[in-house]
Amino acid sequence: MLEYRNIEIKKLASKFFQNPDQGMHLFDRDLGQQIRQQIEDIIANYKKEEIVFYLDFKDVLSIDFSCADELIGKLTSRLLSDEYGEIFIVLQNLNDNQLENIQVALDRRKVACLRRCSDQDWQLLGYKKNYLVETLDVVVKRGKITARELSHELDLELTTSSTRLSHLHKAHLVFREQVIVDGGGREFLYINCSLANFKFFDKNMT
Length: 206
Fold this sequence. Notes:
The chain is of the alpha/beta class. It has two domains: about 1-130, Transcription Regulator spoIIAA (2-Layer Sandwich); about 130-200, Orthogonal Bundle (Arc Repressor Mutant, subunit A). About 40% of the residues lie in helices and about 25% in strands. The chain contains seven helices and ten strands. The protein has helices at about 10-15, 30-45, 65-80, 95-110, 130-140, 145-155, 160-170, and strands at about 5-10, 25, 50-55, 60-65, 85-90, 110-120, 120-125, 145, 175-180, 185-190. The strands form three sheets. It has a five-stranded mixed beta sheet. Strands 8-10-9 form a three-stranded antiparallel beta sheet. A hairpin with a 5-residue loop joins strand 9 and strand 10 (about 185-190). Helix 3 crosses helix 4.
């Protein structure tokens, strides 16, 4: 079963500000690196576990491109290189000022990250292909799905639906587990990394 951990970006960054209680603006690559390294230290404690880390930007007013690239861009790139194990990263409480620079940072690195807007609303940020967005939308709405079920849902060949879901899993956008099917045998069940489908362990890691 997936667990969730909330990481408050403002708390990680506050040690680098003289007045952290005032509106916080995250600027420059050095600050992004320092925050990212703290996140990586937290992740290192959970490498063998299946956890969704929510990076919470609450009370952060803005982030410039350099900081966004060093923090979110590089973190996502390393995630897709499997440096962190079977973990998942979701961004939440982003405002429009943060969103633009994070979008550009992810897009330039040709990686994507899931943004949680609400329990029922999501957005895929960064570099994406339309057919994968379509597939991810089905997984998010249904909560969990097999390749066979997806093939019926979108009228696809079974091999095509399997490939799409596999790509989403490799991109750390969906979780998967093996299940036993009726009549014997096993297949993968692909699961949405969403608060609506799993128990949320509200433990701030900062």
